[in-house]
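Continuing the series of single-chain predictions for the mutant panel. This is the parent chain; the variants come on the following pages.
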Amino acid sequence: MALAANGAEEAKKEATPEQKQFRKEMVAKYDTNKDGKLDKEERAKMSDEDKQKMKEMGGGKQGKSKKDKPADE
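Parent structure:
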């Protein structure tokens, strides 16, 4: 079990300075309730361009949960 947990921790990498800056910009732009994070509704209102850039940078939930992924992933 410890090996699996350790592997999961290694897979979660710290964000790069560019990712942190982009996230900060997206929160400033779309965080309408000013809680410091983007909820499902706020992410839904993001422009397609910003959603794509966030996806390319490897960040954001993009409105998907674990249950949305196929079982073989």
